[in-house]
Design goal:
Elements: H1 4-59, H2 67-85, E1 94-106, E2 109-121, E3 132-144, E4 146-153, H3 156-160, H4 164-175, E5 184-190, E6 194-201, H5 212-217, H6 227-241, E7 247-254, E8 260-265, E9 295-300, E10 311-316, H7 331-335, H8 342-345, E11 360-362, E12 368-370, H9 400-420, E13 424-430, H10 435-445, E14 461-465, H11 471-486
Parallel strand pairs: 4-5, 4-7, 7-13, 13-14
Antiparallel strand pairs: 1-2, 2-3, 5-6, 8-9, 9-10, 11-12
């Protein structure tokens, strides 16, 4: 039997051998794990930089008037944001190679791809003669082109509040957030009636002569607030593009309650038989108009006047349907059929010529929209032809609240129809609009705070601007919301 000390020596020798063999295997594994963690950290930073560059590039696709300029701007922005997020020599990396591509990946959608490769030295893996390795990453961001109709109030109250120029400046800033040659922008303004200042087009900033920029600069603020016709016309402009899969947007701006409605109006052909004071607001005489055929007209009331003040202008409805845009300024149009009419000399005498308020408002293409809705009650009356009216409701055109309620209800109805057709609506209210105006604009935009918020319709946003100095931020916020959804 061998001595015990010899056996211990031999066991210790085996242990040393096993330990050496174990270390020979485990050290490369540990080195690989350490180097892998190191390379993972570099790749995570590289991926973050690529994502940041792609997002920044997608946001900057509006910079430049041509597609080539926009893509060059996007590439420069991508590289700048990449460099800011992946500093030179990060974790001893070297030789970064960055490529930026802009491609149309689906209909009216551009995708920016930022790819990067860097060389990274190894530490423990040098034992296996692997001095360095490459790390790569990429980031993508897409921007969906949009169709946007600006619907801007240009009523006289804006001029009185010195807000007309701030409005134009804020709207121009909004326009500059979008890409000429890709996005389509259009402009409708409204006072007593609406006007298509610029139909939606991709050359909204570059068209020679009149474009959306020149038309915004030329806006004058005067007249009433005929919101519904303008909103309706904007939706029809979007529908005419025939792009059901596009992101269609209406941005609606106003500084007050709608107070004007367009109607197909019946002229008094008999005395109404009601002569209650105050004279001459209630009259039992027929209209003095020589031409007693129905007339298309807009009627409006001021928000601060008494309950018996309305104004209006009309002309025979043949051939006035569809209603021409901005017809309150067309003297030849208005002169037709107005001989001996009370409104021809003084617009506030329009009630002397009108029999009653019709049950529906008239849209530009001849479509009618009921005036009933969430606000009321409405003082309306429509007796059969030849029947004498012996109730004050006959004089609905002299009820300020009825006209205001009708204007609210009609706008609410046309906005609901637009959203049902997948149009996304944003609204901006300026000044001391009051709770009813806030309520209306939340309904119009389907703001989540609206009493009738509907999840099945596009979710918009109502932004309140307390005064004209807040218009830039209000328009910028809406632009940001639209561009966020476009990505």
């Amino acid at each position: 039997m061998k001595p015990l000390s010899d056996r211990n020596k031999r066991q210790r020798g085996f242990a040393v051998l096993i330990t050496a063999l174990f270390l020979l295997g485990i050290i490369p594994v540990l080195g690989l794990a350490i180097d892998a963690s190191y390379l993972y950290a570099v790749r995570a930073k590289l991926s973050t930089a690529c994502d940041a560059g792609a997002l920044a590039a997608a946001r900057s696709l509006n910079v430049g008037l041509t597609l080539a300029e926009q893509e060059a701007s996007a590439a420069a922005r991508a590289r700048a944001f990449f460099d800011a997020n992946f500093p030179e020599g990060y974790f001893r990396s070297r030789n970064p190679r960055v490529t930026v591509s802009v491609a149309e990946t689906s209909y009216r959608t551009r995708t920016v791809t930022v790819s990067a490769i860097v060389d990274v030295p190894t530490y423990f893996m040098r034992i296996l003669r692997l001095e360095s390795t490459t790390v790569s990453a990429y980031g993508k961001a897409s921007r969906r082109d949009v169709n946007v109709m600006l619907v801007l109030d240009r009523s006289g109250s804006l001029d009185q509040a010195n807000a007309c120029n701030p409005l134009k400046s804020a709207a121009l800033g909004f326009v500059n957030q979008f890409a000429a040659g890709r996005d389509r922008l259009g402009l409708i303004s409204f006072g007593g009636t609406y006007r298509v200042d610029f139909a939606p087009a991709m050359d909204f900033k570059t068209r020679s002569g009149s474009n959306i920029v020149t038309m915004l600069n030329a806006l004058n603020c005067t007249g009433g607030t005929n919101s519904a016709q303008a909103f309706y016309a904007a939706q029809k402009q979007l529908e005419a593009l025939n792009e059901p899969g596009a992101l269609n947007v209406i941005l609606f701006f106003t500084d007050g309650q709608p107070n004007t409605v367009t109607f197909d109006l019946r002229v008094r052909t008999t005395g109404l038989g009601y002569t209650a004071a105050p004279s001459p607001y209630y009259s039992n005489s027929r209209s003095s108009c020589s031409d007693t055929s129905n007339k298309v007209g807009w009627v409006w009331t001021t928000e601060t006047s008494g309950a018996t003040t309305v104004s209006g202008i009309m002309r025979p409805d043949a051939p006035a349907i569809p209603v021409p845009e901005d017809f309150e300024t067309q003297s030849s149009y208005l002169a037709a059929g107005s001989t001996n009419c009370a409104y021809a000399s003084t617009r506030s005498y329009v009630y002397r010529d009108i029999a009653w308020m019709p049950p529906a408002a008239l849209m530009p293409d001849g479509t009618t929209v009921p005036i009933t809705g969430y606000r009321g009650p409405l003082q309306t009356y429509s007796p059969p032809s030849g029947v004498t009216c012996r109730d004050s409701a006959c004089y609905s055109m002299q009820h300020r609240d009825t006209l205001i309620y009708a204007a609210h209800n009609v706008l609410d109805r046309v906005a609901t129809t637009a959203r049902q057709n997948s149009t996304l609506v944003y609204a901006i209210g300026l000044g001391n609009v009051g709770p009813e105006q806030d309520r209306l604009l939340r309904r119009v935009s389907n703001d989540p705070a609206s009493e009738i918020y509907t999840q099945s319709q596009p979710t918009g946003l109502y932004v309140y601007a307390p005064d004209a100095t807040q218009l830039n931020s209000a328009f910028a916020r809406i632009a940001g919301e639209i561009l966020r959804l476009a990505r």
